[in-house]
Design goal:
Order of helices and strands: EHEEHEHEHEEEEEEHEEHEHHHH
Structural class: alpha/beta
CATH class of the largest domain: Alpha Beta
CATH superfamily of the largest domain: NAD(P)-binding Rossmann-like Domain
GO molecular function: oxidoreductase activity
Organism: Botryosphaeria dothidea
Keywords: NADP, Oxidoreductase
Family: Belongs to the NmrA-type oxidoreductase family. Isoflavone reductase subfamily.
Number of helices: 10
Strand order of the largest sheet: 3-2-1-4-5-6
Protein name: NmrA-like protein
Strand content: 15-25%
Number of domains: 2
Length: 317
């Protein structure tokens, strides 16, 4: 049995991963939360809930004693806060004797083009420094690329994952792409990512720092072509990389971002800015990740993007 602590464990992606871990019926899961625990300490699913203060390293260390693996799912628009809390969690994990750690990654390989993900680069450096000289904390950067589930919007195949309209909108037969749409992109289902994390808990070798996984390696143009095959015609609006770099989005529409961390009064502004940053990151191949975990877990069969999206859109012309 592996004892797992999940920081930010009430989030939608975290809950998908937790469900995959619990499905193995052999591990113990503790969710760390900043909110008061109003219900039972152990819920009907067998998850133990513990309120923590990430600014208090001594108490955090105490909570983590006896824990084998820490999975972090922090998401916060406050850069200073999320960096501080992440570093404190790493320090407390080391002091508590935690064996393995996964920082809040769960997406792209390169994050500096995405302001809300920029903290991840600093945390990677902090983990490297933590192990400078000797190994103090084994860790991996779980990177699935982009969740292919988004392209099924508004149809969901998961229990917790929060859907939002994507830049390739299968439902409304439209897409937004940079002039050069041959950028490489990795697509993986949320379900596969959760399954890989659950399998990684039992992996007997050392966790690799590069924790990429691939459901499908493809390009934006190929995803749009798949949409055409499944949905018929697609109206594609092209944007220039120069306009994106200038902070300009010259399109007739844009996806709306609905997420608990986005204030309603800022949704329109943030949705536009996020799309600009995202398209820029796609053009720079930031969502092209490795297949490290595919090789380490050869028995796991990943669902391809075509399989997943055909299951949703086939016959719905």
């Amino acid at each position: 049995m592996v004892k797992v602590a999940v920081a930010g464990g009430s989030g939608n992606v975290a809950r998908e991963v937790i469900d995959k871990i619990l499905a193995k019926k052999k591990h113990e899961v503790t969710v760390l939360t900043r909110k008061p625990v109003l219900g039972p300490a152990v819920d009907p699913d067998g998850i133990r809930w513990v309120q923590v203060d990430y600014s208090d390293k001594p108490s955090l260390t105490k909570v983590l004693r006896g824990i084998d693996v820490v999975l972090c799912f922090f998401l916060d628009l406050d850069y200073v806060s999320i960096v501080r809390n992440s570093k404190n969690l790493i320090d407390a994990s080391v002091q508590a004797g935690v064996k393995r750690f996964a920082p809040s990654e769960w997406g792209s390989r390169i994050n500096r083009t995405l302001p809300h993900n920029a903290f991840k680069e600093e945390i990677r450096e902090y983990l490297e420094d933590t192990n400078s000289g000797r190994m103090r904390l084994e860790y991996t950067l779980f990177q699935p690329g982009l969740f292919v589930n988004y392209f099924g919007f508004p149809h969901t195949t998961t229990k917790h994952f929060t859907m939002c309209q994507p830049f390739i909108d299968f439902e409304n037969r439209r897409a937004i792409a940079v002039d050069e749409d041959s950028a490489s992109i990795t697509l993986t289902t949320v379900q596969d990512m959760g399954a890989v994390v659950a399998e990684a808990l039992d992996y007997e070798g050392a966790w690799p720092v590069d924790g990429g996984m691939r459901g499908t390696q493809t390009t934006v143009a190929e995803v749009i072509e798949l949409a055409r095959r499944l949905r018929g015609c697609m109206k594609v609006e092209k944007v220039s990389l120069n306009d994106l770099r200038a902070g300009q989005l010259k399109t007739s529409w844009r996806p709306d971002i609905s997420h608990p961390t986005v204030p309603k009064e800022l949704k329109d502004t943030i949705s536009e800015r996020m799309l600009i940053f995202f398209l820029n990151s796609v053009a720079q191949h930031c969502w092209h990740v490795s297949d490290t975990w595919n090789k380490l877990l050869p028995h796991h069969r990943f669902t391809t993007a075509e399989e997943y999206l055909s299951g949703i859109w086939a016959g719905k012309l």
